[in-house]
Amino acid sequence: MAEMNGLMWFRKGLRVHDNPALDHAARSVRLLYPVFVLDPRFLRPDPSAPSPGSARSGLNRIRFLLESLSDLDSSLRRLGSRLLVLKGDDPADVILKALKEWKIGEICYEFDTKPYALAQDKRIKDFACASGIKVFSPVSHTLFDPAEIIKKNGGKPPLTYQSFIKIAGQPQPPILQTFSCLPPVGNAGACEFLDVPLMEELGYGDVGQEGFSPFHGGESEALKRLKESLDDKCKGSLASKSLTSEEMKILKSVEDIKWVANFEKPKGDPSAFLKPATTVLSPYLKFGCLSSRYFYKCLQDVYANVKKHTSPPVSLVGQIPWSNNEELFVAWREGRTGYPWIDAIMIQFIHWEKGRDVFERLLIDHDWAINNVINHDFEMKECRRRMGEAYALNCSKRKPWLLNAGT
After folding, report:
1. Dihedrals φ, ψ of 377, to 5°?
2. Stretch 269-296: mean pLDDT, rounded?
3. DSSP 58
4. What is the Cα–Cα distance from 358 to 333, expressed in whole angstroms?
5. Cβ-contact 360, 56 below 8 angstroms
6. In sequence order, which residues have a C-beta less than 8 Å from that of residue 194 and are 6 or more positions away?
7. Higher-confidence residue: 261 or 218?
8. Could you tell me which residue, 311 or 133, shows the higher pLDDT?
9. Tens digit of each residue's pLDDT (9 = 90 or more) over 124-162
10. Upper half-sphere CA count for residue 182 (Cβ side, 13 Å)
11. What is the pLDDT of residue 397?
């Protein structure tokens, strides 16, 4: 093992299983500082926000994050480590101070495509390069490296789902080996180690439980939620295949093989909440509590045990990479999905950035790339033109939900 100190910077990727950055750090350093920085940009209460929460996050997202951090801390403590929670006005400034204070020789963190994260990364990398500090930043939040996909496609993003699949090929397999222990944490020095805060400690007072999502954050919760849905039929189907205990752990996360094989979006009841028609894995994938590569491999193992299954983009596997099916997109854009309430909403001309910002605050599974992957300004102009045509056509057919929707 190298005689240097390492810093594992958690942002997304709030898990222990199949975490390439953490795996690399654990094998490369003598002392390891696992860090999460509380970012006031997302956590500080904003009285002027349209609903309780910060300027960028509603209470559900904040609570889900805190629960995920608490679970991660518990997992690290079982491995002889802990999560070091730091705070500051700018996370990049906090990390730079820690690199100096703890004499870090290598920093590891999961690559993030969000512009805000990329700006932080540049500052960290520039300082590391000038200071002789190694940087390891693997792509593991998504199945594929977006930059590599664009490069393979001649510098342009693929415009259809099938072209994306053809270019992407198969994702890298997950890391199946588990940790028995982690390198010890070094001294804090001038930095103050904090515990994962409670909602009240962030300034939200007694928020109670009213209005909170029933879905709790954390890697353990993600695996537990899936594991509990396994039935005897699924166990019998899996018994014929030789699987490691770790593969079985994720395979047990699937409701049953038949359900997985026949999953087809958008079929199902979108109004089902307490007993959803889907896996409700999206928030766990968004925060990195569940590895997308790990989940993908387990779905492939399920498919290998059935004669027939649905295919992307409507299959369960098709929900893991981003969905960019041109035919479905055009149907959504033109207000002809067949779902009256969606089509009604689509004739109302709201700028995409307004909708994106609402999603970011209130959805616990909001992910930046999903709402920023296409040229929305160009599409909005085309959308307005086609919406006008669709509105006139639908009104002429006297569809009441469209006539009452307004413009």
Report:
1. -65, -40
2. 79
3. B
4. 19
5. yes
6. 38, 84, 85, 86, 87
7. 218
8. 133
9. 999 999 999 999 999 999 888 888 888 999 988 887 777
10. 28
11. 43
> In a 10 Å sphere around its CB, with 0-12 CB exposed, 13-18 middle and 19+ buried, how is residue 375 labelled?
exposed
What tokens does 332 get?
A: 């959504």
Q: What is the mean pLDDT of residues 159-180?
A: 86
| CA 283, 289, 291, 295 torsion-angle sign | negative
- Dihedral, CA atoms, 367, 369, 371, 375, nearest 10 degrees? 170
Cβ–Cβ under 8 Å, residues 30 and 183: yes
Q: What is the pLDDT of residues 345-364, one digit of tens each?
A: 665 555 556 666 666 776 77
d(CA 169, CA 143): 10
31-58 burial string, b = 16+ CB within 10 Å, else e?
A: bbbbbbbbbeebbbbeeeeeebbbbbbb
Question: Among positive and negative, which fits the CA dihedral 272, 318, 239, 228?
Answer: negative
Strands 84-87, 104-109: pairing is: unpaired
The string of pLDDT tens digits covering residues 42-52 is: 999 999 988 88
Cα separation, 197 vs 107, whole angstroms: 24
In the sheet that holds 31-38, the strands lie side by side as 84-87, 31-38, 5-9, 104-109, 134-136
Distances from the Cα of 79 to the Cαs of 83, 176, 181, 294, in angstroms? 11, 17, 4, 21
Residues 6 or more apart from 213 whose CB is under 8 A from it?
60, 63, 64, 364
Which residues is 53 bridged to in the sheet? 58
Per-residue pLDDT at 254 = 47
Which tokens is 232 given? 């005897």
Q: Which pLDDT tens digit goes with each residue over 185-233?
A: 999 888 888 999 999 999 987 766 556 778 899 999 988 776 664 333 3
Longest dimension (CA), the chain: 75
Beta strands in 24-110 (DSSP E): 31-38, 84-87, 104-109
87, β-bridge pairs: 38
**Are the beta carbons of 49 and 55 closer than 8 angstroms?**
yes
Q: What is the DSSP code (8-state) at residue 154?
A: T
